[in-house]
Design goal:
Length: about 140
């Protein structure tokens, strides 16, 4: 938090999707030009490329960063699982920000994890998926009339 500013505790949001309305309501009551910050405690430390991608998506959506900063998304230097999203309130941006976070983070994290998984585990996952498709088809083919 920049020097001279005050932060207000908004609560602990274990499930960001279910608390989205509360975050938006808090932002809407703040005056224009307010510095807003959303702290995310993730289950796993995100890859730096993931944070860059999320930051670029937010900037391209028109979300304004804090004055004097060029980024919106920041990783915590002391806790790699903690990420901060910092923007200046002009409109109620929290809905856009949460929407992008809920769409991009799981997709990108899943893609990164897929490259980290050993090949035998990938093959097993693919085979299990194929079995889930083939079992109903085999059942329909062998069904007696």
């Amino acid at each position: 938090m920049p020097i001279g500013y005050t932060s207000y505790y908004a609560g602990s949001f274990e499930d960001l999707r279910s608390q989205q309305a509360l975050v938006a309501a808090q932002e809407e009551t703040a005056p224009e030009g307010t510095l807003a910050m959303l702290e995310l405690q993730l289950a796993e430390a995100p890859h730096p490329d993931t944070l860059v991608e999320v930051n670029n998506q937010l900037l391209s959506a028109g979300v304004p960063p804090w004055e004097g900063y060029s980024s919106i998304v920041f990783a915590d230097a002391t806790d790699p699982k903690k990420v901060y999203v910092c923007w200046t309130k002009e409109l109620a941006w929290s809905g856009v920000i949460i929407g992008i976070l809920l769409f991009l983070l799981p997709t990108i994290l899943g893609g990164v994890l897929w490259f980290l998984i050993p090949q035998p585990v990938k093959d097993t996952i693919i085979m299990m998926g194929l079995m889930m498709v083939m079992l109903p088809i085999m059942g329909m083919i062998t069904k007696e009339k």
